[in-house]
Specification:
heterodimer, A: 461 residues, alpha+beta, Beta-Lactamase, five-stranded mixed beta sheet, four-stranded antiparallel beta sheet, 53% helix, B: Arc Repressor Mutant, subunit A, 2 domains, elongated, HssS/ArlS-like (chain A)
Chain lengths: 461, 223
């Protein structure tokens, strides 16, 4: 795999090289089309001036060499060729003293030489090459002797401190730039590779890995979201595992009871009264299993991310009355009275689901009410909605249990609640939330329980 | 008391029969409406428990015939709890409606309630002071509240209210509510009267049960 970091470095280096090449080519074109002609013309002018001065000296050859030396000292490299192919250099010596045919024409045909026109001369660097051929040449005549004067500016003398400074500036610019880019690339790619490692951990079901990266940018946001996601996944994982453990426990224990008591029954040795007791256990456990299966199904339906409520307006007071009627026999068994104070009106809700809610709250109220006590049910109008209160005088809920009673499979004190599945109130809460309502439990140990459900849409009749 | 059970499922028929037998009724079992009608030609029943979903004539049609032509109270039983079914059932003339699966005790309770009120020449609704009794639903309305009380207590209250201002002998109440005048129910009656008084008092009823020593009870309106 090509790492991002390496890609980044390669790309930046590539661009650096490209920009240099392009820069060279462009300056070269500029040099060839403007600078070279200008400098050649300038140099030619200098050479002709020098030649004119020499010719006007009229045979005083003794002054020739000192003159050329002093001209050279002004920053030029000079070569003087006589008709005997003798070359004399002034100033910084040439590395290559070869005289090309073109250059020779200065002395042979009295023609001006304007430097190299072939091969490497097209390249800008030829401007700096220290060769005799890289000069301008003019013919001159002293004492009827033909000479050729070749001249070029001495680059070493011309390049000044400012050039060195400029070069250093450019170099440090490049170095700092490159270093900065490398640092930046590292900053960008490091959290990404950390994220990638963390994602791998998550894929392996390991949710203990959170990233400690804090940045005020997009990557910081990404890390933040990632950490949130891991947190959520961890919670889901925990609740999923507890759910599975609970379900299997709640399925296993009734099944074990049924199996055990059925074996006892078929063993024939049991007395009549024992047999009845065993059969009762089997019946109770079967009821529990059936209830659990129904509740699990309902819960998994409600858990779907897009559960569609089948809601419409219907008479809430009538629904609650019907639910009470349904439990008349149990009320009678416990000799309970129910006091109903119901505002007549229509609520906007899913009738089937709300039936489940009232059934659950009412059966809880009856279950936990002592013999010969009273249950109160009240509907009251509240702004746009209504609140429904179900109050019993039963054993109440312990303070430590109160925050947990709507959790799945939570059962307050096993001995109090051996029939329940621990899912009822969890489903109730889920249903109320689907209706954008609220549910509240007010209770104290031994002093009864008051459940208040708020539903947001209600029209009084 | 003979009770007709109409259901096409053998096991449910048997289950209901056993529960009825244990409660002291005499169940008569048939599997569809046709059998029910031919059986009724030479037998009398006090009530019928009818399943809605049956091959041939539906439970609704049979209910209609039983309640209107033969004056037999019917409890309809169905597997689905849909409202339309409930409404159709009551339109057909059923006295009550049960949704499967139901507790045997629930069935017995409703059967008992139907048998008690059916065919008795009593007023269905009694209005007294701020109290309103409905015999068809066993509701007591006080002011704007509805009070649901145990059935025996309701029966006692209804008897007293029906002849408000008159003294009702204990024996009459025992006969009407328990079906027999036995000493073992005496204590029960006392307890029920005591509780009834408490409940009426708690809920602000403007009536009072007065004891008429050595005879029975009398209901009076409190000013």
């Amino acid at each position: 795999m090509k790492t991002l970091y390496r890609q980044f470095i390669q790309t930046s280096l590539l661009f650096l090289v490209l920009s240099i090449v392009l820069g060279i080519v462009l300056t070269n074109v500029y040099y060839l089309s403007f600078t070279k002609q200008e400098t050649t013309a300038q140099n030619l002018e200098r050479a002709q001036e020098v030649a004119l001065t020499l010719e006007q000296m009229h045979g005083d050859t003794s002054a020739l060499e000192p003159f050329l030396t002093s001209v050279a000292n002004l920053g030029y490299q000079i070569a003087l060729l006589d008709s005997n192919e003798q070359i004399k250099s002034f100033g910084k010596p040439f590395e290559d003293l070869t005289i090309t045919d073109q250059a020779r024409k200065v002395i042979e045909d009295h023609k001006i030489y304007t430097g190299e026109t072939t091969g490497l001369s097209f390249f800008m660097t030829s401007h700096f090459s220290n060769r005799l051929s890289n000069t301008v040449g003019v013919p001159l005549e002293i004492d009827n002797q033909a000479y050729a004067l070749y001249l070029r500016p001495d680059m070493n003398l011309l390049s000044s401190d400012i050039h060195t400074l400029l070069l250093a500036f450019l170099l440090s610019l490049a170095v700092v730039n490159l270093a900065g880019m490398l640092w930046m690339a590292r900053q960008l790619t490091r959290p990404i590779s950390l994220l990638q490692q963390a994602a791998k951990e998550v894929a392996n079901d390991n949710y203990s890995h959170t990233l400690a990266i804090s940045r005020p940018d997009e990557i910081g946001d990404l890390v933040h979201s990632f950490n949130e996601m891991i947190d959520r996944l961890r919670q889901n994982d925990v609740s999923r595992k507890t759910f599975i453990t609970n379900v299997s426990h709640d399925l296993q224990s009734p099944l074990m009871n049924i199996k055990g008591y059925a074996e006892l029954l078929s063993a024939d040795s049991a007395e009549g009264s024992d047999q009845r007791q065993y059969a009762n256990v089997i019946e109770r456990e079967a009821t529990r299993l059936s209830g659990l299966a129904k509740q699990l199904l309902l819960l998994s339906t409600l858990d779907q991310p897009v559960y569609q409520l089948n809601a419409n307006f219907y008479r809430l007071d009538e629904q609650i009355k019907e639910n009470v009627q349904h439990y008349r026999w149990r009320l009678d068994e416990k000799e309970l009275d129910v006091r109903l104070k119901l505002v007549k009106g229509n609520v906007f809700a899913d009738q089937e689901l709300m039936n489940y809610v009232w059934d659950n709250l009412l059966s809880n109220a009856i279950k936990y009410s002592p013999q010969d006590s009273s249950i109160r049910i009240q509907i009251s109008k509240e702004k746009d909605g209504c609140s429904i209160m179900v109050k019993d005088n039963g054993i109440g809920i312990m303070k430590t249990d109160l925050p947990h009673i709507t959790e799945r499979f939570y059962r307050a004190d096993q001995s109090r609640n051996e029939e329940g599945t621990g899912l009822g109130l969890a489903i109730v809460k889920e249903i109320i939330h689907l209706h954008k309502g609220k549910i509240q439990f007010i209770s104290r140990d031994g002093e009864g329980t008051q459940v208040v459900v708020y539903l947001p849409q209600f029209k009084e009749e | 008391m003979r009770i007709l059970v109409v259901d096409d499922e053998l096991h449910i028929r048997k289950l209901i029969a056993i529960q009825l037998q244990q409660a002291g009724y005499e169940p008569v079992l048939v599997k569809d409406a046709q059998e029910a009608l031919s059986l009724l030609e030479d037998q009398e029943v006090s009530a019928a428990i009818v399943d809605v979903m049956m091959p041939g004539m539906s439970g609704f049609e049979l209910t209609c015939f039983l309640s209107q032509e033969m004056d037999i109270p019917v409890i309809l039983v169905t597997a689905k709890g849909q409202l339309e079914d409930k409404e159709e059932g009551f339109l057909a003339g059923s006295e009550d409606y049960l949704v499967k699966p139901f507790e045997p005790k629930e069935l017995l309770f409703r059967l008992q309630a139907i048998l008690r009120r059916y065919g008795k020449a009593q007023r269905q609704k009694i209005q007294l002071a701020n109290i309103h009794l409905d015999r068809s639903t066993y509701d007591v309305a006080i002011n704007d509240e509805t009070l649901i009380i145990p059935m025996k207590e309701f029966d006692i209250l209804a008897i007293l209210a029906n002849s408000y201002g008159q003294t009702i002998p204990r024996s009459t109440i025992l006969m009407e509510v328990w079906g027999e005048v036995e000493e073992k129910h005496d204590f029960s009656l006392n307890t029920h009267i005591k509780r009834l008084r408490e409940r009426l008092n708690n809920y602000g009823a403007k009536i009072e049960i007065q004891t008429v020593r050595g005879i029975g009870y009398r209901l009076e309106v409190v000013q």
